[in-house]
DNA sequence: GATGAATGAGTATTCATTCAT
DNA sequence: GATGAATGAATACTCATTCAT
């Protein structure tokens, strides 16, 4: 890493926080440089434009997501557990506690949209490998694995990352996952125990 | 309808088109009133703010969507066909030809997000009734119908309304739908013939 | 009073309250008609313009002020007491309890300015008569009565109607009044007992 | 003074003139930048808002007023002459010929109000020192000097800065000033000779 | 007497970006 | 590498007033 890169990384970190908490569109370049204590010129020395900075912030998020996924894959846990681990890691809030659910707030529609799209693209092959492992082990039985994985990711994002969900949502999700992957009934039911009850419908 | 309401409806229609083609955020009030040939004051006489106008535009879309869904339900077609018809109607482009896919373009993330959310909420009970009908007829066999419906809507939106999709996506979707609803293999395979091939991967 | 005059009087009353509490410039015609439950056209049927309405509101205030002053003059109290009574009545808050000091708030600079000017013009001759009465009785001894009265009104407005004042301000005011009118030391010292202590410096 | 400060000072000077001649509220930001030949952004780079600019303009006026007062205090003239000099300097028009009485025109109520308030606060201690000097010299004899000073300022502003005044107003003002400060009859009568007759009642 | 839809000039403010130093 | 003064197009919204019905 070059010398000037260090400051750039700091800037990305600051912007990442601000975009997440206030939304990309509600965060002005002025606010970023004020928080970073740098001059306007310095900002534009490092980034061509605000939008390009957003891309870099997102890349940073995606990279860290891939990292996490790879770590999970390398763990000594069962295939179903790896799947659930990777899906759960899509939610940044699981990792970064102080920032709570903000990526999924209305002010963050644009950023969520971009992240979600790339995340699905990037996680699909990784998760596909895991599923294939499961197929090889005889736990799953299915074809068109990448397409099934994509669907899995779409559903989990749509179900758990927006608004609230109920116990029934979980049970249907488990049922669907098993059938989608051609697993035996009950294979994925351990999911239920992992869910953060505080986010469930009716919870305060 | 009161007298003043007529002009308001015209305005909503114009804004609906503009929001859809250029995106909500990229459409300025100035552009709307210029197209509508009215004065600034007239605009603000009818709408408290641009955002409130967006809400009304969305309400209009939702209302028309409900109307369409109800018509489909009333038709003399099979239950699986009703389901597919309602799901397909979520895409406004099927109805309004001139506006092509724009609701799902990047500039329309915000609007798509809002519409999608409400659409799912509003279509879920309607579609649930249809599924129940199918259960009663013995075509389907499942519990937690509303949750399954919601998942169906999330998937179809995520799969077909964003970016491109392949034949494999369709076949997985059909498989998943059948299993999600507890239908016999092949029940939904007629879907494949309905898909607009021009939107498929590889197609221009 | 004509029939239509009744509604006009109601409107003036409503506007008077609004102007006083929110300031003339911060009160829009829309807000007035909404509170009065009338149409725009009706408003402009009764008033040529918003500014002309302000004049009428001020006239209303001045008229009521004159009325009060005349009543005080007619009372069976001493000349010094009449003087103080009239001066005190300049503050609308003494009469209209719910509206507290608002005429002298920053948002009401314009209205205060206009009222103050007219009030001084209108009260000067009335108060001059009272002073003359005092001269005739031998309590006061001075020439140029109207000019002295005007000065008295300017001081009392500037001292008591804006911001806070202290006991020393009162004692200087009393001293000055006595000397300005050529009264014996102690003639006006009863004023001190009448002052609303709650408005004094240091008071909560 | 930093480099960027120079342009800011120019802007303040321009705004000062415009606020004075046309009134604060009647001067738009557009007009200011057009006269200053700068871009909108430049204006908002230097000032947070139009209102904040007004505060800075007023501060500038107050500062120059204090400067003038201090110069007068340092002069080799009699105490009564110092007093009159300071009071007279409250009127900016005495100093800045091109701007004629505008601060006291109806369109300037707001600005006059703000200036007047601060001016009284700022001049009171300065003038009090002068009075104390006079007391020490045996010319005046009084207590509660700051309160008397404040009253003096209120009266002179109310009498000479608004509308017209007559010879009688002057003579009453002189009489009152002498008595307020406990001076011998005739001490302040030189004032009469200093008054600009062109502003007196009857004069055009 | 009363209505309310229509007007349109006017206003302050935002903000990503540039560039000479 | 870094600065910060300058840019100017863009934007949403206000509000007193008019007038046909």
From TrEMBL, chains A, B, C, D:
Signal peptide (from-to): none
Keyword Cytoplasm among UniProt keywords: no
GO molecular function, one term: DNA binding
Positions of the HTH tetR-type domain: 5-65
Keywords annotated in UniProt: DNA-binding
Top-rank lineage group of the source organism: Archaea
Keyword DNA-binding included in the entry's annotation: yes
Pfam families, sorted: TetR_N
Gene3D superfamilies for the chain: Tetracycline Repressor, domain 2 (1.10.357.10)
DNA-binding region in chain numbering: 28-47
PANTHER family: ACREF/ENVCD OPERON REPRESSOR-RELATED, ACREF_ENVCD OPERON REPRESSOR-RELATED
Protein name listed in UniProt: Transcriptional regulator TetR family
């Amino acid at each position: 890493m070059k010398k000037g890169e260090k400051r750039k990384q700091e800037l990305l970190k600051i912007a990442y926080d601000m975009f997440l908490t206030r939304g990309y569109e509600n965060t002005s370049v002025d606010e970023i440089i004020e928080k970073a204590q740098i001059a306007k010129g310095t900002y534009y020395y490092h980034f061509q434009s605000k939008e390009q900075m957003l891309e870099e912030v997102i890349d940073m998020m995606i990279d860290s997501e891939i990292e996490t996924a790879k770590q999970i894959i390398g763990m000594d846990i069962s295939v179903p557990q790896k799947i659930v681990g990777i899906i759960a890691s899509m939610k940044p809030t699981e990792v970064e506690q102080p920032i709570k659910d903000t990526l999924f707030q209305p002010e963050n529609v644009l950023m969520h949209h971009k992240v979600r799209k790339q995340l699905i693209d990037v996680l699909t092959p990784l998760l596909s490998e895991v599923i294939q492992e499961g197929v090889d082990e005889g736990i799953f039985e299915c074809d068109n694995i990448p397409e099934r994985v994509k669907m899995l990711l779409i559903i989990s994002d749509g179900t758990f990352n927006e608004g609230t969900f109920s116990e029934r949502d979980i049970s249907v999700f488990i049922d669907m996952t098993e059938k989608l992957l051609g697993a035996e009934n009950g294979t994925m039911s351990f999911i239920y125990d992992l869910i953060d009850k505080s986010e469930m419908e009716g919870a305060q």
